[in-house]
Structure formats: C-alpha cells, structure tokens
Amino acid sequence: LIIGDFTAKVGDPSGVSKERPMLTDQEIRTNMKGYLGQAGKIIDVKKAEVRYNSKWLSKNNLEGILELTKAATINQISERADFRGRIKAGQKVSLLEGLYSLLQGFDSVNIKADVELGGTDQLLNLLMGRQVQRHYGMKEQDILTVPLIEGTDGKEKMSKSKGNYIALTEQPKDMFGKIMSVPDKLISKYFELCTDVDTKALKEIKTALQKKGTNPMEYKLRLAQEIVALYYNEKDANKAKEEFLSVFSKKNLPKDILTKALSSKSYELTDLLCETSMASSKSDARRLAEQGGVRINGEKVTNANTKIKLGKETLLLQVGKQKFLRVKGK
C-alpha cells in the first residue's frame, strides 16, 4: 500500500481544470492521519506492506530526475485531454504537473509492482507506470481500473472537495443517511459498484427499478443496508435503518443529539458550521445554506452571512437530513 506523501505536494492533475496548490508538509500529515483507517475498512493493514513514496522520491537527486524524465516525451504528456483543454483555453500547465505521472510511475519501479489498481481517471497514470518500468528494464505491471461514481449530488464524481462524498469512516447512521440522499437514478449503479450483491440479484434490481409503479425507496433502503453492513456489520446496518425510518419517516429527532457549548456569543452561519464541524469549510457551509440544507430550530436559513447569537438556551442545528447538533453559549 503506497501512501503518496511526496506526490501529494504536487497534486494529481488528472481531470482538474487548473493547477492544484502545493500542499505543505503539515497539511499532508493532517490528510494522512486517516488513510490507514480508511484502507483498513477494505484490507487487513496488519498484513499489508505500507510504503511512503517520500522514502525514494525525496532522496532522488537531479541526475536521477533527469534519467526519469527520459521515460516520456513532452509530446506525449501535452496530449493528455486535461492538459490539452487547459492549453487550448490559454491556461498554464506547469512542468511540475507534467512530472506527476512520471513520479507515480517511479513508485511502481521502486516496489517492483506486478499490478496497480485505480479509477478510470487514473488510466494514463497507470499506463505511465508500465512505461517507466520499461524504461528501467523491468517487467511491466498489469493494470486494473474501476469506474468512478457520482457523489450524493448525482452530478459530479464523488469528491471531498466538492462536499458530495460518503466517507468510509462515517458512523453507520450517517453513512446510511447519506446513501438515502443519493438520487434515485444512481441506485442501480451504486448496487453494482459499491455492494457485494451477486449478478442475478443485481439484474432483478435493475429490472424492478425500470418498471412503472416501483417505489425506489424500498431498493434504496436495501442499498444503504448493504453498504453499511459491508463496512460495519448487519447489526449496525439494521440499527441505522431503524433510526433513519424513525427520524425521517416518522419525523422524530435522533435520540443521541450532542450538545456543544461554544466560547463566542455570536457567529456568522458559515463560521458556526465550521466551528461545530457541521461543514468542512466556509465554501462548503455557504453551499449548504444556499441550497437550503441548513435549519436552526427547524427554520431554514439560506443566508450564509446570517448572525447567530448564542446564550444559555440551546439551539438545534440541522445540516442536511442526517446531521443534528444542539449548540449554546458557555
């Protein structure tokens, strides 16, 4: 399992419309904290060999970098669709970005990779791994790509930066709730790509969803149960389903809403959402508010700049359909 702590400084340019900002070492360390926990949901990390690519990339001198650059041509790199589009639009593409796929390919050289896995957006990077291995006289790795899925908005690919993601480390009830917010059109795709449902059952689900009069809620509930059980267990999945039905079908509030006392007596809505971790960033908080996803004491608040005053009385803060928190002043 390779953790790209060095390549994270550059940032993968695949599919992006502008150059990514370089991350600091502190930002990278913060991001890395949860990697093994996430990977541990799928693989037994105790049996895995975990490698950090800074071990070989940070030690590479200029002579080594020059040798690596001989593995690909400028013509080849500039023909990438994402780079080509930016160049055509008059936007810059730095040489640093062009190096990214070579650096990732050098990972395959250092661990003598037999096979590399990735999303379809990683195809060019994975192929570059084969090319770099060939340049160093090694046997070329096999590659396996898997389709990407749209996020909870049903529009763009699932991404933390876009706020449309479902984290592997979400609590069962939160994971269940987010899956239930996915558009109906994605139910079949999520069953196919995110569950262990067999081919026969998948075919039956797809057929049923295409029939007139079918209630997609029935299949979405099953989808959420399947996914939560996959990353937790059947008991947690059933409990999450019961709570979801209680909160959203019977309009009850969750039983275990936390109360948080905050030091300031007044917050702008965006600051309040960030301070309470109900939003990942100010831009995320603004988006949630403007899309009607924020309520205080049951009332929708769409102005992201709204001043929220805190006192001894608690306020019920709700974000989306599954996040609840009581807040008050100290």
From TrEMBL:
GO:BP terms for this protein? tyrosyl-tRNA aminoacylation
Keyword set, alphabetical order? Aminoacyl-tRNA synthetase, ATP-binding, Ligase, Nucleotide-binding, Protein biosynthesis, RNA-binding
Q: Which PROSITE patterns match?
A: S4
Q: Which SMART domains match?
A: S4
SUPFAM superfamilies linked to this entry: Alpha-L RNA-binding motif, Nucleotidylyl transferase
Q: From which domain of life does this come?
A: Bacteria
Does Ligase appear among the keywords? Answer: yes
Domain RNA-binding S4 intervals:
268-330
State the EC number(s).
6.1.1.1
Pfam families reported for this sequence: S4, tRNA-synt_1b
Which InterPro entries is this protein grouped with?
A: aa-tRNA-synth_Ic, Rossmann-like_a/b/a_fold, S4_RNA-bd, S4_RNA-bd_sf, Tyr-tRNA-ligase, Tyr-tRNA-ligase_bac-type
Catalytic activity field: tRNA(Tyr) + L-tyrosine + ATP = L-tyrosyl-tRNA(Tyr) + AMP + diphosphate + H(+)
One Gene Ontology term of the molecular function aspect: RNA binding
GO CC annotation, single: cytosol
Report if keyword Cell division is assigned.
Answer: no
Q: Which CDD domains match?
A: S4
State the PANTHER family in the record.
Answer: TYROSINE--TRNA LIGASE, TYROSYL-TRNA SYNTHETASE
State the family it belongs to: Belongs to the class-I aminoacyl-tRNA synthetase family.
The name under which this protein is listed is: Tyrosine--tRNA ligase
